[in-house]
Amino acid sequence: MTPTLILIGLSSYFLILLCIGYFTGKKATDDSYFLGNKQSIWWMVALGMLSDSMSGVSFISVPGAVFKSNFYYMQVVFGYFVGYLAIAYWLLPLYYKYNLTSIYTYLDQRFGVVEQRTGSFFFVVSRLLGAAGRLFLTAIVFQKFLFDPLGVPFFVTVAVIILLILAYTFKGGIKTLVLTDAIQSTFLIGGLLFTVVALLNSEVLSSVGLMDILKKSNHVSIVNSDFYSNSFFWKHFLGGAFMCIAMTGLDQNMMQKNLSCKSLNEAQKNMIATAFIVVLVNVVFLSLGAVMIEFFTQLGSFPEQTDQFFPTIALKYLGPAAGMAFVLGLSAATFSSADSVLTTLTTSTYFDLLGLDKNNNISGANKLFYRRVLHGLFAFLLLIAIMGFYKYSSGALIDVVLGLANYTYGPLLGLFALGIFTQTKTNPIGVIVVSLIVPLLCWYLGNNNFVSNLIGVNPLNLRYQFGFELLILNGLFSFLGYYATSKIPKSL
Question: 134-168 burial, b if ≥16 CB within 10 A, otherwise e?
Fold first, then answer.
């Protein structure tokens, strides 16, 4: 597929999003920016959550990771399913009961402003890094196949992409994102299915069927029974459940769309539908991974990095139609995650870190100005974070993104668990100290190579390999730390 065709497809895609942003941003108010006027349709939110939760990391890294990790990622996905149900029947009722715009306002009402800002801070760090990692992966693909041949530097590529995202989200906020994310999920599913069909019908694989490939593949085992492995079944399953609760249920980026639904019942229907859709789509992603391995086996050579499996096949071997489907699917998966994060980071900072919604000394016009400055500021920080990934990251990015979440979401799990399951009143100083020490302790135990290389310090090297269950340990240590430093009410 030529760079010109990729550029035409990408430009057309962004033009659609810009038109939607223009029309939904007309007469936009704070209520429409933050909660879509509480008029979002549940099935549209559910459809949009697919592209938001999958992202470009899933679109590229999950199929490629089959080469080294078999179908073990399905263990995590099964955990996700349980996590979505927990969110639907445990967290969403809590958020609707308090009529929240930012979910971290609950921490203020339950504990105090320090806890609210602590929760918001960890969300901001987590989502900024996660969105940067997802967007970085897509930018690398476009850089290799489009912008390098045109002589465009990587920094310029990323800057232009972020400016385009900024353009269609700047005014409409959640009202715009619910519609654009639903459209992007349609592109994601369509692009994925079209590419899989084209791959199976390619000259290399035309003589074999999907079931034949899966039957003879050595990479389709789902359950890992090795206790010491970081992909041991219960580590992945339980880690996936808590990862979903933390990265979706305790994440303003994911919950803000749910809070824009008309009622709790509709938000719960959205969450349950999302649980089933995510399982089915990941089955397709992993099956694609097995098919790609067979494709490269027949060719007799493999790309150096697993993250390059999918783009190499789609853009070099399958022709313009499949290449365009891949470009649109990847764009949808990535930009859905990146565009919403600008709005939700702005929301959390506006409400939780700065408390602008409560400041009656600031006029409505000035509040609008501050909101737009924050939106632009996070676009700039996203650019800086992506350039950091460009310099330091290596390997499958799905491991980097989820690995970082093991540390940054632990304090959120601990704080919300303390608020929901106890009557304890926290000690603000204790909250700050525990929130800093526990993630560092878990990093030392977890041996995360990306963090180690970044700060130049090697962690503890244990025979036992921590997987996603490290997030559970992080949350548990945080919970115990907050409880140990808390002030118990006299009435108890």
Answer: bbbbbbbbbbebbbeeeeeebeebbbebbebbbeb
> Rounded distance, CA 364 to CA 461, Å?
54
- Of the candidates 338, 432, 436, which has an alpha carbon nearest to the alpha carbon of residue 378? 338
Give residue for tokens 């992007």.
184
Task: Give the single-character DSSP code of 245.
Answer: I
Integer distance in angstroms from the first to the last C-alpha of the chain?
A: 68
Confidence label for 315 from pLDDT (cuts 50, 70 and 90): confident
How many independent structural domains does the chain possess? 1
Q: Is 125 a member of any domain?
A: yes
Distance, CA of 437 to CA of 210 (rounded, Å): 49
Q: Is residue 413 part of a domain?
A: no
Can you give the pLDDT at residue 112?
A: 92
Whether the pTM exceeds 0.85: the reply is no
Pairwise CA distance, residues 8 & 27, whole Å = 31
329 burial class (0-12, 13-18, 19+ CB within 10 angstroms)? buried
Tokens 């033009």 belong to 15
322 falls within a domain: yes
pLDDT band at 78, cuts 50/70/90? very high
Residue 332 sits in which domain range? 3-391
CATH number for the domain that contains residue 60: 1.20.1730.10
Give a yes or no: residue 417 inside a domain.
no
For 345-363, the pLDDT digits (tens) are 888 898 888 888 777 788 8
pLDDT digits (tens, 9 = 90+) for 243-287: 899 888 998 878 877 888 888 999 999 899 989 988 998 898 889
452 phi, psi to nearest 5 deg: -60, -50
